[in-house]
Specification:
By secondary structure, this protein is mainly beta. The chain folds into 2 domains: 56 residues, no CATH class; 662 residues, Beta Barrel (Maltoporin, Chain A). It is 2% helix and 62% strand. It has 3 helices and 43 strands. A hairpin with a 4-residue loop joins strand 10 and strand 11. The longest helix is centred in the first third of the chain and has 7 residues. 41% of the residues are buried.
């Protein structure tokens, strides 16, 4: 029998339908494998059989691509868990994302910004999104001219969602149960026939992380010159319910034109109970106090998005036109009820409540045109985007005698920020020689901001234009080794919370206020990388340097004897540099290694409480190692160690921490698998922040019930080679690939 091996993204074939031949703009097309033909016994018995292999993520000239499906726990994990398996990325239990130690990270979905992944909503959204919906993660440390500067303007983590283009239908269903009543379940399916393609998924989750915290704070009493001791002990409890639904429909008008529509919706609750025990030492202005503050929080978050896209293939090889409209929104509501019970004689117990509302709406309309030109590939495009933020907080004190609610004007505010961005970009990519390839681009962005502090009846406008260059080059050292060079300039525009000047209550020790005078941060980043294969292992080493001008940093000072205000300010600047490595591949036929590390050095400069310029430097070593062992054809065991090094945080620093996870996968049948995993096996994950300044000495430590067990089943219906372990051994990538970039890569 003659057997022809094709790839999902094979173009120009009459065998596969058109929707199976079109790669997404964020995912590179896989290289066609070499056709192999077995000699037939008789010519008349030859029957063509087509086998379609899955697309394997590969590096591109401006990014690294990591296949997160190789993580055994992907069937019951979250997007936060998936990101924690990507080199130099860390997601802490609060959902804060760092890349190479920096929190200035954009997270996109299929190359586009999403309202649910912005601001304070991003962490909970990542912990609610199912990892099984993610095909791969693209790490773009130096985003090029085609990428905008929304939501931070820093490096980009692009979540490429799963898309199946194989003819016919398939579906995967899984259900998982965890400790303390946790559970999750998901269904993911697709059907492709003729000109039509359908893809969808649904998931539910009941999960969360309880926490405890201890804060010791010594503050300087300016009247006595002595430090006064204060402490806070906190307990937070509450698992939340989450649900998600998304779908995509595509239709091929003809061989050259495709229409695609998509929609998604997810929601979660924001319920939690907490207790804080405060012991405040006496100062020259206030007496000592000992009390317990109880908090009951209720609320919910709703996120939705929809989009439409038109794809056209031109007459020239590689000529494409893409018009894309994305609309997304996020609405968050919560109600906090507080009660202070005083142990100090003479103090009266108090009650209060706080209502918070925050909604974000993003409209993103883009067009991209690509064609061969002068021996290379030219690409140009436009973007029109609006980002509307509305934030309101109503804080009321309950009169202890009458029980009447009285608005606390010092903790109540309403704020609006409307931002519109117009952008044009152009890039040109070509192979300079057999060994050299280059890509260069320039982006122009015009930003228009309308700021409305409703409570203070203050309106302001701001507008500016930025020119953002980028350049990349590759050099083919040998058949198995490449050198990569990259430069990019980015800007970080302050978001709504950064600019809102009104004071927002967080707890009895801490309040927050934005700074309307913030300027955008300009970042210039440089990188050089070497990719090769050593002893059968894919090995990558990258050196990088990043410099921030007008860096936005946290600045803290006291507004009351025991109340610390955190705000934002433009520092004198900061820079970071480091060496990053990844090694992945099979050590033996049954043992696969994926490991990475990042040796970083960061420096920040800012003005302290006395007006003196202070420069701080921190060196840190972070890394992770993951071993997959195939005990036999039916059993896989995975062990993963993650270490996060010391990082600078505002006027202090965050101490190093580490976690160890284990997973086991058992193939019951080719369609049915059993998965069990435990996160933070030794319960070592904690977040500790230390500040030591002239007026404040503080140590804050938070611990989580990180040791969580999950066990579940996953069943797959239909699909060619319906084996749920398909491509689980692919590893992280990246892979050297060819030296110079192919046109259109």
């Amino acid at each position: 029998m003659q057997k022809i091996l094709l790839t999902c993204c094979l173009t120009g074939s009459a065998i596969l339908p058109a929707y199976a031949q079109t790669a997404t703009p964020e995912k590179p097309a896989a290289k066609p494998a070499t056709p192999t033909t077995a000699a037939p016994a008789k010519a008349k018995d030859v029957v063509p059989e087509v086998t379609v292999s899955a697309e394997r993520p590969t590096n591109r000239i401006d990014r690294q691509v990591y296949d997160v499906k190789s993580d055994i726990s992907s069937t019951n994990g979250t997007a936060a868990d998936a990101l924690n398996n990507v080199p130099s990325v860390n997601v802490d239990p609060d959902g804060t994302v760092t890349l190479r130690g920096s929190t200035n990270v954009q997270i996109m979905v299929d190359g586009k910004p999403s309202a649910m992944l912005q601001g304070d909503n991003r962490g909970p959204a990542l912990q609610a999104m199912a990892a099984d919906d993610i095909e791969s993660v693209e790490v773009i440390n130096n985003p090029g001219a085609q990428f905008g500067n929304e939501a931070g303007g820093g490096p980009i983590l692009n979540l490429v969602m799963r898309r199946n283009r194989k003819p016919g239908g398939m579906a995967t269903v899984n259900g998982n149960a965890g400790t303390a009543g946790r559970y999750n379940s998901a269904v993911n399916g697709s059907y492709n026939q003729g000109a039509w393609g359908f893809q969808g998924s649904a998931n539910v989750r009941h999960d969360g992380r309880n926490s405890t915290a201890e804060v010791t704070r010594d503050t300087l009493d300016p009247r006595t010159g002595q430090f006064v001791h204060n402490s806070q002990e906190s307990v937070g409890r509450g698992l939340n319910d989450m649900a998600g639904l998304n779908g995509t429909v595509s239709y091929n008008l003809n061989q050259n034109d495709t229409l695609t529509g998509s929609a998604s919706y997810n929601s979660r609750t924001n319920d939690q109970r907490g207790s804080d025990h405060y012991i405040n030492g006496a100062t020259s202005l206030i007496p000592a106090a000992d009390y317990v503050r109880s908090t009951t929080r209720t609320g919910d978050s709703d996120n939705f998005s929809w989009g439409a896209r038109y794809d056209h293939k031109g007459a020239l090889p590689g000529e494409t036109l893409k018009i894309d409209l994305r609309v997304s929104a996020s609405e968050n509501d919560s109600v906090n009820n507080y009660a202070n019970d005083y142990a100090t004689p003479g103090w009266v117990d108090t009650k209060a409540n706080q209502r918070n509302h925050n909604d974000v709406r993003i409209v993103d309309f883009t067009g991209d045109y690509e064609r061969p030109l002068w021996g290379g590939t030219a690409k140009a495009g436009y973007k029109v985007a609006t980002n509307d933020n509305n934030v309101s907080t109503l804080y009321t004190d309950i009169d202890p005698v009458s029980g009447a609610a009285v608005i606390n004007n010092g903790r109540t505010n309403a704020y609006e920020l409307d931002e519109t961005v117009y952008a044009l970009y152009g890039t040109y990519q070509m192979r300079l020689s057999e060994r050299w390839g280059a890509l260069a681009g320039l982006r122009a962005e015009y930003t228009d901001m309308d700021i409305n502090q409703i409570t203070g009846n203050v309106e302001a406008k701001n507008h500016y234009i930025n020119y953002i260059p980028s350049a990349y080059a590759t050099y083919k050292v040998s058949d198995n080794a490449n050198l990569r060079f990259a430069y990019a300039r980015r800007i970080r525009r302050p978001n709504a919370n950064d600019l809102n000047p009104y004071v927002t209550y967080r707890d009895e020790f801490n309040v927050f206020s934005g700074n309307p005078n913030l300027k955008p941060t300009k970042t210039d980043s440089f990188e050089v990388g070497y990719e090769t294969r050593i002893a059968g292992l894919e090995t990558n080493l990258r050196g990088y340097y990043r410099k921030d001008t007008d860096a936005i940093v946290d600045y803290r000072y006291f507004v009351a004897p025991n109340v610390l205000l955190t705000t934002r300010a433009n520092g004198e600047g900061s820079h970071s540099s480091g060496l990053e490595f990844t090694v992945s591949g099979k050590l033996t036929p049954s043992l696969t290694l994926n490991t990475s590390g990042n040796l970083a050095r960061a420096q920040q400069s800012f003005y302290d409480d006395s007006g003196n310029l202070v420069t701080r430097t921190a060196n840190s070593l972070s890394g992770r190692a993951r071993l997959n062992y195939s005990y036999d054809a039916a059993n896989q065991i995975q062990m993963a160690l993650q270490v996060m090094g010391k990082t600078l945080s505002g006027q202090g620093y965050r101490s190093a921490n580490h976690t160890f996870n284990m997973s086991w996968r058992h193939t019951v049948t080719p369609q049915l698998t059993l998965v069990a995993n435990v996160t933070d096996l030794f319960n070592t994950n904690k977040m500790q922040t230390i500040i030591d300044s002239d007026t404040l000495r503080e140590t804050s430590t938070r611990r989580f019930d990180g040791r969580v067990f999950y066990v579940g089943l996953s069943y797959r219906f239909g699909g060619a080679g319906a084996n749920n372990n398909e491509h689980r051994e692919e590893g992280w990538g990246p892979r050297p690939g060819p030296g110079g970039p192919p046109p259109g890569a």
